[in-house]
Amino acid sequence: MLDIKFIRENIDLVRAKLKERGDAIDLDQFSTMDRKRRDILQEVETLRSDRNSVSKEIGARKQNGEDASDLIAKMGSVSSRIKELDEALKETERLLHGLTMTMPNIPHESVVRGTGDEDNPVVRKWGEKPQFDFEPKPHWDIGEELNILDFAAGAKIAGARFTVYRGAGARLERALINFMLDLHTMEHGYTEILTPFMVNSESMTSTGQLPKFEEDLFKIEGTDYYLIPTAEVPVTNIHRDEILDEKDLPVAYVAYSACFRAEAGSYGKDTRGLIRQHQFNKVEMVKFTRPEESYDELEKLTANAEEVLKRLGIHFRIVDLCTGDLGFSSAKTYDLEAWLPGQNAYREISSCSNFETFQARRANIRFRREENSKVEYVHTLNGSGLAIGRTVVAILENYQQKDGSVIVPEELRPYMNGVDRIVRNK
RNA sequence: GGAGAGAUGGCUGAGCGGCUGAAAGCGAUCGCCUGCUAAGCGAUUGUACGCCUCAAAAGGUGUACCGGGGGUUCGAAUCCCCCUCUCUCCGCCA
Predict the structure, then answer these.
(1) What is the DSSP string of A101-113?
(2) Which is catalytic among the residues A214, A307, A348, A376?
(3) ipTM of the predicted structure?
(4) How far apart are CA A49 and CA A201, in angstroms?
(5) What is the model's pTM?
(6) CB of residue A344 closer than 7 A to nucleic acid strand B?
């Protein structure tokens, strides 16, 4: 959510910035509702002030055994007018709130203007594309031939976009989770968190999934529970409605979670393989920072995600999302795209964002500086470190051998019980 | 799932229709005192929104907030209803 005062005072700037994202937001309606709200508020507060003083007078008279029936009669009509105004105010605030909750964040000034992913500038690359003396296969073929990914079983027991992992495949998934958690906690200074995989609607609203993107979520029927689409939601909400100590900032958490996405609107896209699943695993990093340090922290967070791919020896590039490709809540996002030789393409494997105060305002997460008493909103950031399923994809495709086996990256072997190569077994 | 008890400021905890934005204690901040430390004394000590002054910082003023929502009343932390959460006991259960 944007600051309502900021919108009011910078309405043309906000209009222009949101237009760069390709969002058509009715700011005229915002101005009308905002004006109306303040008009009603002034009237009702004046009436309340009158009522408070007269009620005191009534109390005083009654104490002295005097008659107050004239004042009581007068206040009866004032009270009913207050009630009317309260209802109008509530309705106006409801509309205004609905409007501001569906407004996306304003892109940071460094974000380039563009309309889609083809406009995202490449910031840097690491490593090189591996060379093969055979035609590299896509991971779904490698996985099935090694009998470590069973797409048919996933479809049978659940449906499309679900997969069963077997043997070394299941072990590889688990190894990656532990490897990444160990790296981020022991070398990058994050505190490990394990949260519920379901949250209530209030949490989903704080991080920006609701009210606008309900169709992307799985909801548990008959309850207020939603399956989380990312650990960002529960982890960010840990500090909802709190005032953090400045000395604790920046707070840095890392959490493994399963993630659940309805993938509405992506029919026909990435239908094969592990790329786009209804359920996948992810290790997520979340930070709460002072405003002035959030962009430095974004660079560090992105570097922490990059380090995972470097240790695994997977070639990747980093793109800086343009205004048209930026997520709803984000002010700036770097995507890490891993090279997938089986598909001859770079694919997103991590997304690192600075939300500035957008989520903090929705979630009411603040801090107080030691030298003064004024509370301020923190900046929130998060990034995948990394998406586990897609990392399996990258390993299978980059480390595949001519004989169909897959070499295990050296850093991962301690987590694989020393196994250095995945081969087909019965 | 059944029965009961609770939810008040940074914390502990009073209040149970008007004198309460809220006693008291603790904590914190500032000042005084003190060779240092401790003790002591004094003052201050929430948030949000609106309006006014205003370049701003800041100040003034009003309203709201005692788990959340609704109701009764001239007036609600206080009475009534619904919900959520916490605790205790019973049942069930990985």
Answers:
(1) HTPPPPPPTTSPP
(2) A348
(3) 0.87
(4) 36
(5) 0.94
(6) no
